[in-house]
């Protein structure tokens, strides 16, 4: 089997690391958006419940974008040539998959949580806000 090409691995690792930073940012934003909406930050002339409900759609959008970036990283770690995988490509893939497959799997699981919560907020945010404002 061919030896991995360190230049390719270094370049792809740098691209992957940049994309992982974007995923971190998107996940942080998806957490902060409903908090800011709950606090009424940047709220236009509409009820707090509707504003909180709209934040759910933003949570879903940011989480989906993070998921798309994770898929891009996964695909980048599986290089192809015009005639299929080369021996060097297979060696590079093995190294890259060892480095990033667990990270990607973990991030994909983490990304599912804001997707789920954002969908609930998007659908029922006004009811949640009305209930909690009466309880608190």
Shape descriptor reads elongated
**What oligomeric arrangement do these chains adopt?**
single chain
SS field, number of helical segments:
3
Q: How many angstroms separate the termini? A: 65 Å
Outline the biggest β-sheet: none
- Overall helicity: over 70%
Which consecutive residue ranges, at least 5 long each, have pLDDT under 50? none
Q: Give the integer mean of the pLDDT values.
A: 86
Classify the secondary structure makeup into a structural class.
mainly alpha
Strand content: under 5%
Task: Write up what this structure looks like.
The chain is an all-alpha fold and 136 residues long. It has helices spanning 6-39, 48-76, 87-135. Helix 1 packs antiparallel against helix 2 and helix 1 packs parallel to helix 3. The radius of gyration is 20 Å and the shape is elongated. The chain starts with 5 loop residues before the first helix and ends with a helix.
């Amino acid at each position: 089997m061919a030896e991995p090409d360190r230049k390719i691995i270094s370049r792809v690792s740098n691209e992957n690391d940049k994309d992982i930073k974007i995923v971190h940012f998107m996940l942080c934003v998806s957490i902060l958006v409903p908090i800011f909406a709950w606090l009424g930050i940047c709220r236009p002339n509409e009820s707090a419940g509707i504003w909180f409900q709209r934040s759910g759609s933003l949570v879903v959008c940011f989480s989906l974008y993070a998921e798309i970036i994770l898929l891009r990283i996964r695909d980048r770690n599986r290089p192809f040539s015009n005639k299929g995988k080369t021996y060097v490509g297979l060696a590079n893939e093995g190294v890259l998959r060892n480095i990033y497959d667990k990270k990607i799997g973990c991030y994909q699981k983490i990304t599912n949580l804001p997707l789920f919560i954002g969908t609930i907020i998007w659908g029922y945010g006004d009811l949640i806000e009305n209930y909690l404002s009466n309880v608190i």
